[in-house]
Amino acid sequence: MIEIIVNGKRYSFPEGRWSLADLLWSAGYEIPLPCAGLGNCGKCQIKVRGDVEILDSDRKLIPPHRLSEGYLLACRVRKLRGSVEVELPNVERRKKIEIEEVKVERVNAGVDLGTTSIVVNFSPVERGRVFYSSSSLNPQTRYGADVISRVTYIGGDNSRLQKMRQGVVEYLNGEIESVREDIGFKKVELVGVAGNSIMEHIFLNLDPSPLTRFPFTLSFKDGVFKRGEELGISAEKVFIFPLVGAYVGGDTVALLMDLEPLKKPARRVIVDIGTNGEIVVQNGENLFATAAAAGPAFEGGNITFGMRAENGAIERFWMEDDRLKYRTIGNLPPEGICGSGLMDLIAVLTEEGVVDENGAIRDPMEIDSPLFSRVKEKNGERIFLVYRDVKREIYVTQKDIREFQLAKGAIRAGMEVLLKKAELSWQDIDEVIIAGAFGSYLMPDSLISVGMFPEDVRNRIVFTGDAVIRGVNKVLGRDLFDEANRMARKVKYVELSLEEGFQEIFLSSLSFRR
Fold this sequence. Notes:
With about 525 residues, the chain is α/β, with parallel strands linked by helices. Helix content is about 30%, strand content about 25%.
C-alpha cells in the first residue's frame, strides 16, 4: 500500500503505476496539469517529503532553491514507496458558496461546464431563486488545459473518452449528494448542462474529434434531453444545451438567453474572455458568433509564474508614485500571477514603455521609466522582475508576453472578423459586453492598454458576470427549451480558420497598439 499524507490527512492507495498527481486527484485535490501530466509545464510543483526520486524534469523546471526545499513535479513522481507527505498550502478540495438555507423537495441544477471550471447552481423547481452555488476546477484539466489537448488525449479511444467524462459525472453526483445532505430534498428533477461544443460532446460520450477537422461535423445541434440514468447522473432528466457550431456551444446560447439581445436590438460586441473565447457581434436582429482559441494564458497557463486565481496569486498591478504596486488574493505573500494580474502587468509595461508595441521587452537603456532596473537577463532571455524575497523571485519572460499576445490577438482577431461580417466598425458599436467570472476581474483601462479593444469603446465596456449560469437557470426555471433552440438557430456561425485573410488579421491583432 501507498500512504499519502496531505496537510496532515491520510489516504491509502494500492501500489501501481500511479503518479502522485493521479493519487491527489483521486483524493479530491485539484492539482493543475495544463500539459496533461507530460512534465513540461512545471505547474504541478508541490512540496514532498518521503522516499521519492528527483528527476531531470524536476531539475529543468524547478528553481534550485525550491528543489532544496523539497518541491517536485507531482505528475513525474511515480516511484512511490511507503509513506509520502505532501504540503498543499493553496489547494482547496472544493469551493462552495451557500446562498441561504431553504426547505425544498424538488430541485433543478444548472451547470456551466467550462473548459477550466465548473459552476453548479441549485434552485427549487417552482421557479425559486438559487439557494446554493459551487465552483471548482474541471476534473478534465488533468488531461490538458484546453479542448484541443483533451481531444488529442482521447485520440478516438472510447475508453479514454469514458474516463474523461467520468470525472465530470462523479463531480456532479458528488455535488448533488452534498447538497442533498445539507438541504434534505427528495430528488433532482432536472439538470441543465451548458458548455462549449467539445465539452458537451464529451459529456454525452460522443467522439469530439470530428469537431476539430474539416468539415467540423456536429453529432447534434438542438438541445438534447436524456434520462439521468442514461448518463449516470443522479437526476430524473438532463438537458444538454443546443449548439451553434463546432466551437460555439451551449454556453454561448445560455449567455444569450440571459442577455436577451434580440429584445433590445442594437450594435454590440459580446465576448467571454477565456481559454475558448466565445464572441458574438450583434447588428440589430442579426447575430454572428465565433470562438477564438486563446489557450490557457488568461488562466495563468503556459506562463512561467502563472497560477489560478487562488490565495497568494497577484491579481492586480498598478503604478503609484513611480513604483510598481500589486495586490494578492488573500493579502498573502506572492506565489505567482493569475490572469487578471497578468493583464494589468502587461498593461503597465506597455504604458511605461518597458514593452514596445510589438511585444518586445526593451533594453534597459532604452526605457524612460523607473521600471528599467527590473529588466534582467535570465537563461539568455530578457525578463521583467516582479517580486523577490530571500526564498523566491517572480518574473515574466519574453516568452510569457508572447503567450499573452497570442491569446489577446486571437480574441481581437475574432472580433474583427465578426465586425466585418456584420458590416460594422468599432465606432458603430453601442456597447461591449464582457461576460464570465474572469472578465469581472478585468480593468477597462488594462483592456484598452494591451489592445484588446480600441480606444473608441473605452466608455462603452460593460461587465455582466457569469451570464452563462444565469442563462442556464433561466431556461430551466421557465421551461424555455424551445426558445433556447430557436436562439441557437438564429446565430450565424463563423469558422475563423476558413475566413479569407484571417491570418493577416490575426497577425495585425498581436500588436499592443490601441
